[in-house]
Amino acid sequence: THSNELFMVDSNTLETRTRMSAYHQDFGQISQLACIQRPNMENFIAVSSTDCKLRILSDAPSKSGQVLYTRPFGSTQTALKHIPEMRVLMCGSRSGIMSSCTLEQGDHWSSGQFSSHHQVAVSSFCFMKTSHHLAASMIDGGVQVYDADSASPLSYIKQKESVNCLDYSPHFKLLATGGHESTPYLYVPGDKRCVVTALQDANETHK
To answer: Residues 171-200: pLDDT tens digits?
Structure first.
């Protein structure tokens, strides 16, 4: 919240389980959150704040809110994405730097090997499970696709306006983006962009 509070709420009862107002008063406002779920194991919550640090907290009932890992950055993180298939948390910053944190054994985290640098802020990530490709969107309208294993850039898409969000459909094998153009776009890997005209027409009434 804008009051620098982090609430952990039970999804079944909607009751607040943990409220950590004092915890975040010293760390600035929360910029991004990512829930890291592991079946039948301890879960985590990744929190980035305006003090330019990433903190990974335990979600276990016995130590809910305990900080397990802290990593300083040169600027605030503007995008977080957990990739369970790779045991990796992707981090994108306001300065355009992309990096990763890796979950080792138990609850031990370390700096990952993924590294890339753009000139503008990163807004979102999505992971293409079938191809092991990672897409990152930027506020200048750029979308960069990488090989997630090697961090090698594969393809680049440029839109006129900022891209705020993106996601991948494994069923249709399409990459969807949305941003300041008020028009969602669909991309087929290796093909040209096609506009979703039905949604574009619907958005015209809300401008």
So the answer is: 777 888 888 877 778 887 655 555 554 344
At 27, give phi and psi (nearest 5°): -110, 0
